[in-house]
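Hi everyone, sorry if this is the wrong subforum. Our group has a chain we'd like a structural model of before ordering constructs, and none of us has done structure prediction before. Sequence below.
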Amino acid sequence: MGNMMKAAVYYEIDDIRVEERPVPQIGRDELLLKTLACGLCGGETMAWYKKAEPKVIGHEPIGEVVEVGADVTDYKIGDRVFINHHVGRVDSHLSRRGHFTRDPFYASMKLDPGGVCEYYRVTAQHLRMDAHIVPDNVSTAAATTIEPWSCVLSGLKVCNIQPGDTVAVVGAGFMGQGFVHLAPLFGAGKVVALDFSDWRLAKARDFGATHTINPKTEDAVAALRAANNGRLADTVIVIAPFPDAWAQALSLVEVGGCLHLGAPLPPGTEWSREGSSAYFDQITITSRYSSDHTDTYSYIRLLEAGRINAAAAVSHHFDISESPKAFEMLRKAEKSLKIVVYPHGVPEEFANA
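Answer:
Right subforum, don't worry. Here is the predicted structure as tokens:
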């Protein structure tokens, strides 16, 4: 290991560059990890969500310990680990009320310098709050789903799904597939996926959807009622970050049900409801930003137990030199789910995938 490393750097939505960056230096209570793989997140394609300065892309890495600070005792060289990119604290008003991810401290904690790079540094707070040795029976590729699908699990926790409930998911990209796949673990009976892409709807069937609807070719409300004994869905989860998708999702919620907002609209976008129905329909609206340490702990245990088919969600594998191509595929969001980048070369098993 030299003093410099390769890193994929975001300049603009269509300008990703592979550059040389210094290998981070660690302190006595920190770790240096070799990046084995890093997933790309659709949130990185939302230009309004990105900071103005160039930034190393990726926040879903799985790493191997290559350097251990003198005061670190729980990890050793060679351990394969997951470290959540953001971590919370316990001593704040929001954290004490369970809102770890909305405490400003959470967003301030980051991996150094990011995920799509050859090496990254993790702080002592990361190690205290949300660090895990990856179970032996979980592949590195599958482990790249820990961060994003822990966010799915976090959202499902607040949907109040009761055993046998019908759950509809509006938007069947990678995160939507996660909600489809994990909803039965929370008691869902029928799971209905909605998307404009027949390819994604077919994938949703693979991940456990009992019914699929393409609103581009059929009346979504009528199709849902036809599939659900004349009723709408008890819980509707909307992943597509568009006002029309939110309006469609609301129209699919049964009286007394839950509408879960699984992705944000751009800042300044207004969204409103008619006042009388907002009162009488008794629909609960929930949201959940990111995942905290309790969510990742739960997800890893489910993954280890074989309850989650995470490997099937990884659709494409790229070398770090191909990061611009990988990011373009992410941005187009056509026939892809989880896209993974390998800073030290694509494993032979995926070389032609």
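For your construct planning: The domain at 4-147+291-350 is CATH 3.90.180.10 (Quinone Oxidoreductase; Chain A, domain 1). The longest strand covers residues 4-12.
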